[in-house]
Amino acid sequence: MVAQIYIEPATRENFDEASYLLANPDVASAIDNNQVASAWWHFDNFGHREGRVLMHRKEVLAKKTRKIDRIRQELLISNMDLGTHECGAINCLSHDSIKRGGVINIAALSSNDYDGVPQSFIENNPDAWILDAGAGIRKKYYCNVVNFEICAYDTTDVLGICEELPFKDNIFDFVHSNAVLEHVKNPEYEIYFRKALRLWSSMSPTTTSLYLQLRGSWDPGQGAFLKARRRNL
Question: Which residues of 82-96 are buried (b: 16+ CB within 10 A; e: fewer)?
Answer without folding.
Answer: beeeebbbbbbbeee
